[in-house]
Amino acid sequence: MRRRDFIKAASLLAGASAPAIWTGRAAAAAKPVTLKFDSYISETSGPSRLDEWYLKQLETRTNGAVKVRRYWAQSLNKVGEHLSAVRDGTSEMSLISPGYYQSQLPVTRGLDWYYRMHRSDALQWLCRDVYAEYQPLRDEWERRYNSKVLYWTNWYYAPLVTRQPINSIADIRGKRIRGYGAANEVIERLGGTAVPMAAPEVYTALERGVLDGVYGFDFITAVAYKLHEIAPYFTDIGDGPHGPAATIINARVWNNFPDPVKQVSDQIVGEIYGGEYARIYEAAARQYVKTAKAEGTKFSSLPQAEKDQARALVQPAQTDGWVDRVAKPAGLDGLAMQTLVNNAIAKYDKQGSLKRFDELAAEA
After folding, report:
1. How do residues 205-243 score in pLDDT, each as one tens digit?
2. What angle do CA 91, 246, 242 make, to 5 degrees?
3. Partner of 235 for a Cys bridge, out of 102, 160, 182, 310, CB 3.0 to 4.6 A?
């Protein structure tokens, strides 16, 4: 595309008050951009719904000048391979869940904790701001892994999914519970036995009695995986939002985008942070609450006193552990990062509005 066509298209995008659409002339003049999007989860999982919305908007608003090939459910790379694949350019875009990359992403682990916030949309804004404000976090993604974070997302809320009802913290003691990332530590601190296990193995493990429960599956994915067929008790234990994650793109690929494509992408990302994330997740959660209730799922929430007890068992020990055992050995000022986190919690947590699965179930 000639420079004056880029400038004209960019000015149209910047001046639009409604969602920007790349003009037909600009699209016709541009060399088509073809991308591979590669995810380890299925297209029905929570974060996939947001990713698909972004990808479809990118294609639509560029009038087809950008085309994305989707590879869901480990059809291109296996779980744990996506971060290096994006870095090396063998995969161009991907969802990265840091719990699978704890040794590779030690700084990002400073965002992965429980019992500090209440709303998952607030956690998304927190991750965005801390990423912008804490240079070592940006360096971890941009320099070490040659990637641009397109947007932060997360895994909504994670119920404690069990075969038997959980009415107190005492009921968790001794239970064999599948965990993921920082969730493993929560299980152990609450008296359970954390069992690391790949997601595709969980249903069979529940069915055979190898597991008593599951923690670390977001609600939407837990229902999509049919876990409620074997473990019908879904309990809110007061832990708050679950599993920060990032959708990233290879930096070279991003830098080679025409400027109008970058502007379209930035506008879409602005809408994600501006409420689209919450809209997509709440719609999906309401749908899955209806499905789960119809199929016999029992929803509950621990009494506040039990939640307070759980919080005292997990925090501040979990955050302090990251500062002492991860940040310090890596030469990071972990306290400085956690100060930024605390500031963002104070700023955003009361602004968050995305309802939990148990709240939606009470309304249904």
Report:
1. 999 999 999 998 899 999 999 999 999 999 999 999 999
2. 135
3. 160
**Pair 353, 122: CB distance under 8 Å:** no
Residue with tokens 């955003």: 348
Question: For the chain, first and last CA: distance in Å?
Answer: 52
Token pair 């990251």 is found at 322
Rounded Cα distance between 249 and 60, Å, is: 19
Judge residue 17's burial from the number of C-beta atoms within 10 Å of its C-beta, 0-12 exposed, 13-18 middle, 19 or more buried. Answer: exposed
- How far is residue 176's CA from residue 165's CA, in Å, rounded to a whole number? 14
Q: What structural domains does the chain harbor?
A: 31-154+241-280 (3.40.190.170), 158-240+282-315+356-361 (3.40.190.170)
Q: Which tokens in the block code for residue 211?
A: 């597991």
Phi, psi of 36 (to 5 degrees): -110, 125
State the Cα–Cα distance between residues 219 and 234, nearest whole angstrom. Answer: 9
Q: How far apart are CA 145 and CA 197, in angstroms?
A: 26
**Considering the entire predicted model, what is its pTM?**
0.91
Could you tell me which residues come within 8 angstroms of residue 10 by beta carbon, excluding any fewer than 6 positions away?
259, 260, 263
Q: Count of CB atoms within 10 A of residue 18's CB?
A: 5
